[in-house]
Design a protein that fits this description.
This protein is about 55% helix and about 20% strand. The longest helix is centred in the middle third of the chain and has 14 residues.
Length: about 130
């Protein structure tokens, strides 16, 4: 079974854009076809973005976090990384390393520019769905 870490932008797109590629990827996790991992810092960043950029109410955010935590395995990375300038991107790398993920699924150009990290492939949603 493929093991993946979704970036916050993938979770947000899955929540907001019904029928989109991110939702298709998330449905694979719901159906048990892939294993998705996340961490508290990743979920915190997602909640912050939903609140500030999308003006979601706290109850909507809590429901989204609970939904994701029921499907994805929430890990607690022990090693802090400082590889990319954007701190949330480092949290994604930490999560993927800790989980032993095969893929990081993202739309973030800084992460995509790495192409891979310690053997973990960094791919777009479209490329992940094509696997």
């Amino acid at each position: 079974m493929r093991k993946a870490v979704f970036d916050t932008n993938v979770f947000i797109s899955a929540l907001i854009t019904k029928g989109g590629r991110a939702e298709q990827a998330w449905l694979l996790a719901i159906q048990g076809e892939i294993e998705v991992y996340t961490s508290v810092p990743v979920m915190t960043e997602m909640a912050r973005t939903l609140r500030t950029k999308f003006h979601w109410e706290d109850d909507q955010i809590r429901a989204a976090v609970r939904h994701i935590a029921r499907i994805a395995e929430v890990v607690k990375p022990e090693v802090k990384l400082k590889i990319l300038a954007d701190e949330p991107d480092n949290r994604i790398l930490e999560c993927a390393r800790h989980a032993g993920a095969e893929y990081i699924v993202t739309g973030d150009r800084h992460l995509l520019k790495l192409a891979s990290f310690e053997g973990i492939k960094i791919v777009t949603i479209a490329d992940f769905l094509a696997l």
